[in-house]
Queue: 2 jobs
Job 1
Amino acid sequence: MSDVEAAVTRAHRDEWARLVAALTRRFGDLDVAEEAAAEAFAVAVERWPADGLPPNPGAWLTTTASRKAIDRIRRESKRDDKHQAAVVEYDDDPPQPPGAIDDDRLRLIFTCCHPALGVDARVALTLRLVAGLTMPEIARGFLVAESAMGQRITRAKAKIKAARIPYRVPSAEDLPARVDGVLTVLFLVFNEGYLATGPGTGPVRRDLTAEAIRLTRLIHALLPEDGEVTGLLALMLLTEARRDARVSPDGELVALGEQDRGAWDTALIAEGHRLVRERLATGVAPGRYQVLAAINAVHTSARDMRDTDWSQILALYDQLVRLDPSPIVALNRAVAVAELDGPEVALAVVDRLEAELAGYHAYHATRADLLRRLHRGRESRAAYDRAIELAGNTAETAALTRRRDQLGLRP
């Protein structure tokens, strides 16, 4: 990749969400904002190699995208009325209440996560407009065709326009009721960065995890007493702290038990632990994100894998199952069962989840590991083969392939 190509890629990573958000604020139309942003990057790909990198790529993209948006508005029928409506509604923003956080990207995510939209539409729209994922990446995450995902996002944007959903952070009275849907989306955006699924992308997308953490910090500043906001922030920080140890120099995903714990970010771990302790001190029953954060706090408290308090982790998973009785939670709980009661007991738990998780790569990877520990090599190899077939991340595929090949068996 040339220096200019790298600069365009870096600008897309750093500027996409800010650019779409700023254009939405100015023109009040998500379609216009997304198309103009995409056109600006297309011009950059064409112009920057010939003209050289601009001194301020973000400002250059903003100016170019704004011109593209104005050109589109002028081309459309009744353009004067549309343009005037956009100017009246969006150029003169109403004054913000005292203490409000004026952040275009936060406005954008609350718009994308409006309760008038279905949950899948909220996630897809946020991944596209805020996180900047491509349509194939989003479609793969939802296990649907790219055309179907494109239609879903188009319908969501049309509904926002038709319902005149406001582009703003909700009022203090409305904020608590709106925040749950936003947390769900931010968690999914973080997870896409934590283990990216896009072809040709790195195994970890630091831009997505950083943006999810930044937006969650903003919401935490708005709602410092909300336990689930605090829990999600703690969960993200404790997960992000392990980022540099999660992928080997050869590009292979490193399992938690094999990570160099000296490479973990101690500042992020300390902050995450502090947030978990703050919530425990309130005595209020925790929600899902708080329990997940507590599980990660136990993991990151152990100096060595052998020091892990698996009894505490299993107790926390038992609590989580009551809050979220999903098969994926049951699968993760089985890992703790294996450490306490042995792989045979855990395998029986995992096998009961087959009907619900047969298409999920982690189910087959977990089962393969348990079968390996039970010295059932051929069955383990078959499970690894299926996990490799389903995995969407190059680093994860590399790790699964190595473990399978260490079995030393052939089909």
Job 2
Amino acid sequence: MGSELIYRGSETQPSSDSYSPKPVKPWASVTRTIHYLLREQRLLFVFVGIAIATLIFTVFPTSRAPYVAPHSRFTTLIPDSITYFPIETQQKFSSAHRLGFGSANPTSKIPLGLKRKGLRIVVTGGAGFVGSHLVDRLIARGDSVIVVDNFFTGRKQNVMHHFGNPNFELIRHDVVEPLLLEVDQIYHLACPASPVHYKFNPVKTIISFILLQNLITGLAKRVGARFLLTSTSEVYGDPLQHPQKETYWGNVNPIGVRSCYDEGKRTAETLTMDYHRGAGVEVRIARIFNTYGPRMCIDDGRVVSNFVAQAIRKEPLTVYGDGKQTRSFQYVSDLVEGLMRLMEGEHTGPFNLGNPGEFTMLELAEVVQETIDPNAKIEFRPNTEDDPHKRKPDISRAKELLGWEPKVSLRKGLPLMVSDFRQRIFGDHKEGSNTNNASSS
């Protein structure tokens, strides 16, 4: 019998039940994590690790000591940092301006226990006498410093001890040309300050002040940096007011042999204030009085360096005129302290920065004789043109608003300068000392 195929398409196959996963238990992820930690004493190892880390951070703090420049032989009188003000001075500054916490103008103080972040600072003329001492202070407190100098009066030897420090840069550049950098603060000290140097090319001297706008617009205005201009007591000329206050407008000869410097600095103050009022540039103005100390140019024509170099070389001390002209002499560390307080403070200025102790030229010669050679002779010469008869700062404004006044007396600071001059004149400190001892005996 033949097989018969029967198609039963209409009949349905029994269907199996559809797959359904087990319902998710609540808190499964939490219990799974707890079981993982409890197995093999993992939780114990976590607590042990926390204890070890706490011990390490307690015994070995993370803050590093500030960079101390080698060969800094003349910084014994310089305080460690501008940030360590007396309590009464700190209370005068309501905001810690530009302390480097990610904002150009932070308005809050640094929280207790938090390390101050260094700033990026340009110092024009930073290889010069005052500029190099300022660079030492800024580097010591942890800032990154860019020195811009054309070496007309500056010396590379003044900053060589910072070579190799990653926080230090040196650029050979004339500030009359545009300069593009990203910085927080600008200390402008680039200028020949002695008569010998600024009279060498008086036209370029005054043009350098007029072209100050390149520095202000190229840096301060563009990046919002704070700009400090180092002006001079020469803006008072041959003063009719004594002592000189910042409100005194001066008595300057606009066509004299010194006017390239005197009127140039007055022009620089004008430009600085015009950019402050017209463009909103943050500025500070310091009027610096006679300053002395290590690293001064030996033959720059200024009275302190002249007397010291002449006494060391056994030459007569040259006094111009009758020697009754008066000056006020501040040690370089005092000036640097004042500049940094002015920059960090909230007052535009101008501020007189000088030592109100007043000496005649003959009195200064006597102090140099006492310090170096009692047998040094004094030689009188005709006075120079437009030489001021009196010069003494009124620093009451700096005392009140900056909490600053000079600390180093002439008799205390002069020996430090003499030590530096001996080494540079004789090339060997011991040789200079022996020469001086022989002459004294």
